């Protein structure tokens, strides 16, 4: 069987292929953070064609956990109803509907990263709020200084993740991913560059990993036992004094004990500037290291742009699942070209009979 078509069993569910869409924020939610169904339904339906898994974009567990007012949220029952439509269109295409739960931490209270007023801090006059974080430090110039969370606020954040997990199950999602990368709240507790606390949530490795581990356990209790739980980790901060791959390799077996089934291996995002390398499949070595050294299932992501790369990553044992983000935003039919039988019937004939000529040939009489 082709490596991409090998099903992947995760607890009680099976992905029909090893190809997934990672969470990709589209910033198209409307006031009240309900999905704009005219955007989200066709967007996610199209990106489910021929896919094993589609992880819906970062979804905030509380109003203060939003990165921008245009993010999705899941802290009330109206949001559950609206998101259930998104889960349903993904499942209708045969892909497993996944959802990423997120707390933006010190990346909160921004405008969306595009448009005339994009990528700016949101001030209170514009509806902005004070970001919550382990310590009162701004992420970078141009970001708001966050408030150091109290113990009560830490407990609240854990409870918010668990409540959102219950709602995600009710909405019909079958895989849940916790965002513990890219400098968001759960990552910021891990990294000494953002976490300067001196209480039980800062300092030693055990203390810095406490919030993420408690959150994984609380979510695992709230999320059905037969459904898988993934954690997205920034495997390294790239910066001196920051979180390292060695720390990741130490943490992952503990997260597996706590109930995580899959590690989605990303990197960076804790501070700016950061010396971030890039290139084809550039983060896949983190997925390979985690998989080889811990035995925990991994997803690889980052500049994986064609199916040949995806198949080779799987065949070499670098990962168990390949996530393609930007490529599938612009070319959502790519998976169906590999597996036309997974496309909706109206498209199958076209997939079998039409090829796109690379040259500009026209009939000779023209
Ligand atoms: C427009 C855009 C939105 C993104 N939104 C999210 C998100 O909501 N959550 C997340 O964890 N990562 C997010 N990412 C990171 C992607 O999930 C992915 O890791 C990254 O784009 C690298 O994969 P790629 O090279 O295949 O695009 C986003 C990236 C882009 C470009």
List its traits.
globular; alpha/beta; TIM Barrel; 15% strand; two-stranded antiparallel sheet
Reconstruct the topology from this structure.
Blueprint: E1 8-10, E2 13-15, E3 19-21, H1 37-46, E4 53-60, E5 72-73, H2 77-92, E6 96-102, E7 132-133, E8 147-148, H3 151-171, E9 175-180, H4 185-190, H5 205-208, H6 210-222, E10 229-234, H7 245-258, E11 262-266, H8 284-294, E12 297-301, H9 307-315, E13 321-323, H10 326-330, H11 334-338, H12 345-353
Parallel strand pairs: 3-4, 3-13, 4-5, 4-6, 6-9, 7-8, 9-10, 10-11, 11-12, 12-13
Antiparallel strand pairs: 1-2
The structure holds flavin mononucleotide (FMN).
Residues 22-25, 57-58, 100, 179, 182, 232, 266, 301-304, 324-327 line the site of flavin mononucleotide.
Q: Which ranges are low-confidence, i.e. pLDDT below 50, for 5 or more consecutive residues?
A: none
N→C terminal distance: 45 Å
CATH topology category name: TIM Barrel
- The H-level CATH homologous superfamily, spelled out, is Aldolase class I
Strand coverage percent: 15-25%
User: Could you say which overall geometry the principal axes of the C-alpha atoms support?
Assistant: globular
Order of helices and strands: EEEHEEHEEEHEHHHEHEHEHEHHH
Number of domains: 1
- Strand-pairing-aware structural class: alpha/beta
Largest sheet features: 8 strands, parallel, barrel
| Shape-level CATH architecture | Alpha-Beta Barrel
Radius of gyration, CA atoms, in whole angstroms: 20 Å
Give the CATH class: Alpha Beta
The overall average pLDDT, rounded, is: 95
Number of helices: 12
Name the ligand types: flavin mononucleotide
Order of strands, main sheet, comes to 3-4-6-9-10-11-12-13
Provide the helix percentage: 25-40%
């Amino acid at each position: 069987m082709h490596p991409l078509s090998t099903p992947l069993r995760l607890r009680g569910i099976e992905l029909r292929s090893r190809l997934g869409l990672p969470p990709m924020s589209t910033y198209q939610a409307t006031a009240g953070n309900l999905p704009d169904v005219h955007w989200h339904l066709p967007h996610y339906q199209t990106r489910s064609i021929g896919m094993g898994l589609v992880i819906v974009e970062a979804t905030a567990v509380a109003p203060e956990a939003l990165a921008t007012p245009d993010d999705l949220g899941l802290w009330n029952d109206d949001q559950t109803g609206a998101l259930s439509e998104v889960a349903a269109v993904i499942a209708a295409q045969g892909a497993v509907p996944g959802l990423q739960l997120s707390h933006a931490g010190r990346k909160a209270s921004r405008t969306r990263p595009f448009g005339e007023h994009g990528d700016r801090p949101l001030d209170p006059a514009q509806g902005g709020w004070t970001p919550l974080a382990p310590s009162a430090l701004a992420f970078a110039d141009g970001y708001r200084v966050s408030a150091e969370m109290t113990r009560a606020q830490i407990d609240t954040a854990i409870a918010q993740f668990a409540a959102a997990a219950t709602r995600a199950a009710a909405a019909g999602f079958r895989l849940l991913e916790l965002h513990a990368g890219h400098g968001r709240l759960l990552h910021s507790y891990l990294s000494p560059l953002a976490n300067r606390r001196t209480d039980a949530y800062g300092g030693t490795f055990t203390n810095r990993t406490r919030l993420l581990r408690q959150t994984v356990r609380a979510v695992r209790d709230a999320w059905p036992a037969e459904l898988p739980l993934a954690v997205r980790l920034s495997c390294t901060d790239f910066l001196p004094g920051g979180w390292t791959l060695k720390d990741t390799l130490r943490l992952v077996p503990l997260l597996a004990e706590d109930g995580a089934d899959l590690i989605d291996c990303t990197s960076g995002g804790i501070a700016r500037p950061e010396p971030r390398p890039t290139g084809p499949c550039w983060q896949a070595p983190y997925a390979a290291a985690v998989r080889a050294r811990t035995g925990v299932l991994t997803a690889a992501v980052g500049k994986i742009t064609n199916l040949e790369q995806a198949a080779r990553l799987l065949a070499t044992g670098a990962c168990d699942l390949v996530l393609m983000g930007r490529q599938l935003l612009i070319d959502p039919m790519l998976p169906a070209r590999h597996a036309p039988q997974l496309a909706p019937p109206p498209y199958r004939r076209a997939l079998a009979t039409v090829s796109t000529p690379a040259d500009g040939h026209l009939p000779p009489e023209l």
